[in-house]
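Translate sequence into structure tokens.
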Amino acid sequence: MAIDLEKLRKRYKARKPKKMGAKTIPFHQLRTNKEMILQFLPAISETTCAYWAIRRTFPTYWVDPEDDSKRIILHLPSPKMYDPAEFCPLGQSVSELYTQRDELENSGEDAEAKRIGAVASAHWTKPKMLLQCLVSEWSGVDDPDEDNPVKVICLTKQSSEVVEAGLETGDFMPCGSWEMPDLGDDEYDMDDFMFKCTPFHLKKTKQGGHNNYSASHYGAASRYTQEQIDDVIENGLYSWDQLLPTEPTEEQYELMAELQAISIAAMLGESVDNTFDPEWEKELGLKGFEDTTKKEEDKKKPERKKVSRKSSEPSKEAKTKAAETVSSVKGRGSKSAMAVNLRKRIQAKADKEAASA
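Result follows.
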């Protein structure tokens, strides 16, 4: 099929401006043993050097000021979300909890080690992968924005590992080979728009009563249709700045470190005021959400009588370590090899294509 590059350039420059933010695909609506078919788009992130970005936040837990039976979660963005080589004080403080847990296990204080480990796990980051895509098969999942065919999906660890594994095991870029030159200089890098793609089949199964996405897989390579090309040219791609929280200032990170310390202290049983303050949302530019997961868990749990057990009382030494952990938000710099490894793989792919040309 002949591509009229000049016509596409004109249409790209005349496209309507992209609105800030995007509603993500609610893929949890997918029925068991059904699959969605996605075509990932070439929106290269400077942070990951790949066609996805990583949303990396640390949850903190608060009492709802209007109803103390409810819990509010405030997610604090990690500096590594914007630069993998940056030191993250939020991650450091939780890592110290895990270190303390290990020390307690080694000293035989299993009950206290389990308690500290649970607090650490609750406050640890659960990274999510953001991708831009076109959807060719919805399988009953609601379209979050019918006016824009360019979609955003936020994948959790299990399904995102399948996506990333494509770079390890396949000799391809899942969003295609780079064929199209110079569509114009803009905030979106459309110079290398990809007309070939490898569709991704996001499949949902059940395992042990839980949703499982490990059966997801890549399909056979195909070409974007003319309609899909038209959709992307006319609507444009999102910039990753529009899809990630605004990077906090140094002063905001200091406040977040304090909030995380309070949240950890409260969960450890320290005497602190962990009532949520709506003013924090203005100070940090973040939004707190009601913890609906806790509600569902509480419904499933049978009522139990409280029993006092002397053996589970933490030792004085353990309490001292917990207090030290809560107050510690300092740390050493660290580097991530993720971006470097991806650069190498992508460059190797480009070199191989250049050599065979």
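Note: Confidence is low (pLDDT under 50) at residues 15-20, 176-194, 299-315, 325-346.
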